[in-house]
Amino acid sequence: MGNHQGGRRAARTAAGAPTPSGGPQPLLELRNLAITFATSNGDVPAVRNAHLTVMPGETVAIVGESGSGKSTTALAAIGLLPANGRVSDGSIIFDGEDITHASEKRIVELRGSSIGMVPQDPMSNLNPVWKIGFQVRETLRANGLPSGPSDVAKVLSEAGLPDAGSRANQYPHEFSGGMRQRALIAIGLSCRPRLLIADEPTSALDVTVQRQILDHLDTMTEELGTAVLLITHDLGLAAERAHKVIVMYKGQVVEAGPALELLTNPRHPYTQKLVASAPSIASRRIESAKKAGIETGDLLAPTASKKAALDRVIEVEDLTKVFKIRGSWGKSTDFTAVDRVSFSIARGTTTAVVGESGSGKSTVAKMVLGLEGATSGSIRFDGVDITTLGRKEMFDFRRRVQPIFQDPYGSLDPMYNIYRTIEEPLRVHGVGTAKSREKKVRQLLDQVALPSAMMQRFPNELSGGQRQRVAIARALALDPEVVICDEAVSALDVLVQAQILNLLADLQSELGLSYLFITHDLAVVRQIADSVAVMKKGRLVEQGTTDEVFDNPQTAYTQALLAAIPGAGLVLPPEVA
Amino acid sequence: MPEPTSPSASSRPTVATAPASTTAPAVARTKTSPYPIEHFVADPDETPVRATDSVVSDVAPRSLWGEAWRSLRKQPLFLISSILILGVIFVALFPGIFTHEPPNENCLLANSDGGPTAGHPLGFTVQGCDILSRVVHGTRSSLTVGLFATLGVVLIGGLIGALAGFFGGWVDAILARVGDIFFALPLILGAIVVVQLPVFQQNRNVWTLVVILVAFGWPQIARITRAAVIEVRNADFVTAARSLGVSPLGALVKHVIPNALAPVIVIATISLGTFIVAESTLSFLGIGLPPDVMSWGNDIFSAKPSLRSNPMAIFWPGLALSITVLSFIMLGDALRDALDPKARKR
């Protein structure tokens, strides 16, 4: 092990210096890489003809939608392909050494010490039965580094964990999501690798935490001279954090280049589409355009005119929800999830409620839907307080307010085909005859741009975006006046997300719907909402029109949220796209 | 790879600062690399950009059950076990086709423990009865007990489990504790005690046995159903149905139970086998079915004394019992594989 360490250090100094052939040697190079998965339906190519170079100390981002092969490509570089995947063509060269078909032993040697990894989901990637410190020590020991308590604490404090010495003695469940991701970064960087592969390191975290983590990762890798291969679905984030951006689509690298160059001058049609619809980029563009005094009508999703602002369809006043958390021996403590929240929705407009996880925004949505009783306060729908409705009135109220949920995989009953799914609300409320219901279902499918041939299909045969369209069709079946979108687009790929947002906007102008849009993503809010309410820890900290809140945020919290939108630091020319 | 062909590092700063003349900060927060970076573009014709979210839908629509049936059809385990089960059911329904010998009436002590002869291929019991006939006629009672005990257990256990899981709170607390109490009593031991009660002693038949087996067998199904229901209960589609105005009970019946059914079916199939074994065990102990009812357990019991002199008298009913139970357990395994949610594509 000692010899190996020495060799590694020697190699590192050599890598930075120009090699005899002239020009520095790339740290990681993928040439013509092809990866194939063996499935029950034969071999499926996952990645074809992928080129990629990472120079020492450089940050390279791979951007692509789910299924584009971005994670597979990165996992191949560290020899962690799933059992049914294999490199079928091309080569992987790490620091001048061809490791495409290197022995398991050699790959294990490289992992940790030369190539580190920060996985995607901080919740499942720490072993819940071992203390954090033990898991760091394990990595240090596996790579033959000193692994005493002080070394462990040093590694953890470098990753930005305060009070690292005592934190090391805690279990993963005692850590928040952000702290866990810091611990994983600590583990990934503990052996001073020369390349760090970060697979969507922050996509499970709140934006403000995401920003802190990425900032910290930036400084750390810069200090250590580590090259980073960052995998992300967010073009804005990639452009902000990386020297070089690689766009992957359907298993191929379609475009690669300097970050800003790619944003301002995308040449491949797919990149152009991506630049046009990524919310973080689009919201930046709106801002830039406004500053330059350019009319932004075509950038904003078409929303209804704001003249009707005085007709309030929903008025929420002093809404409070207290949950009882069960303790031992029947004792319970109160937890105020929503604390005296007041806002209103003008008919035909979109109001967004923004907040991080745990801010109580989803509880607000549930109470407005009448699925959760309010502890105090009132929700007036067309002037009638729904918290006092009887059973019969509640049933009628349900026709007028409908939800769309976040997870398109969970919100449709897998046992119901699409026809039954969309017909269900009509049947429950006894609307029309079997024949007229079928006509209505066809019409609804048409409204959400799905072919009526889809009726006999089951949800598991549909893509995420299509499922979300079905969910929208179901929500619209009873001609509601208000639709509550609880993170309705956050589980979708950016292009699909843009499509669904446009669909929602079109439906709004066509049917005069009012939306209550619950989201954590301010970039989306910029595109769709007319007014915004910002929530923090159950309280409403700021509200106003979208323009007011974005141009002139009053509270520090809103300012932090706005600054944390990936790509917030980018300055884009308004004429882009 | 070709050398840089496109505008690179040198032209970038001007692009970035151009629009920032009004109020924006002058420098964009993008990183600049010390190394030259080429701008690579793939041939757009090579990877044509398809319409977002288009899906090729030329396969026939399939439900969960259709999907399961398709994978089951190809499984040897399923085919073998279902052929065996169909055979056993056929024998139970039409015993007359397989043997013309009456099982009880034509017993001659002269044939006691006799070997196979013409017309009696499996030989005779200690009472001189035809073994084949007894095994064939015993199928019906064993199968009836198994089927109806399973049916009862699924109905009662499923109902209790579904209510406990769906409503939670005190309903769950009470139902789950009652289930635990029954769960703590071993089925056979409990049955032995209950059978001694006068009511059951006076009318011992297939149905009293079914009642006893159901009384001690339901907690297992209840637990499985409860767990499955709790998992489905919080799914978004249940919340969606509730916000459409579907009543809690309606949501339970229409959405939750159909989605929680798969594990229940698997366990029910496997426990069908164990109920047949339980019936035989009780009959073997002499407290199951009365001696005049044809049953494999009774035959094994009565062949026990002559185990050494005529082992075949205990072998044949034992074999019939084993094959039947095994095929139900195999069917359960095959169903478990086919209905496994992890194996289903999303």
Description:
The complex is a heterodimer of chains A (577) and B (346). By secondary structure, chain A is α/β, with parallel strands linked by helices. In chain A, 37% of the residues lie in helices and 24% in strands. Chain A is built from 21 helices and 20 strands. In chain A, strands 6-7-8-3-9-10 form a six-stranded mixed sheet, with helices on both faces. Chain A has a six-stranded mixed sheet with strand order 16-17-18-13-19-20, with helices on both faces. In chain A, helix 7 (177-189) runs parallel beside helix 8 (207-224), helix 15 (418-428) packs across helix 16 and helix 15 runs parallel beside helix 17. Chain B has one domain: Orthogonal Bundle (MetI-like fold), CATH 1.10.3720.10. Chain B is built from 13 helices and one strand. At the A-B interface, helix 9, strand 10, helix 10, helix 11 and helix 14 of A face helix 1, strand 1, helix 10 and helix 11 of B. Strand 10 of chain A pairs antiparallel with strand 1 of chain B, so a sheet runs across the interface.
How are the strands of the biggest sheet of chain A laid out side by side?
6-7-8-3-9-10
Question: How large is the share of residues in beta strands of chain A?
Answer: 15-25%
The major beta sheet of chain A can be summarized as:
6 strands, mixed
User: Tally of extended strands of chain B?
Assistant: 1
Low confidence ranges of chain B: 1-28
| Count of discrete domains of chain B | 1
Q: What is the tally of beta strands of chain A?
A: 20
The CATH architecture assignment of chain B turns out to be: Orthogonal Bundle
Molecular shape of chain A: globular
Poorly predicted spans of chain A:
1-22, 301-308
Strand fraction band of chain B?
Answer: under 5%
Mean pLDDT reading of chain A? 83
> What is the chain-wise order of helices and strands of chain B?
HEHHHHHHHHHHHH
Q: According to CATH, what is the topology of chain B?
A: MetI-like fold
The number of helical elements of chain B comes to 13
Q: How far apart, in Å, are the first and last alpha carbons of chain A?
A: 53 Å
**Helix coverage percent of residues of chain A?**
25-40%
Structural class of chain B: mainly alpha
CATH superfamily of chain B, by name, is MetI-like
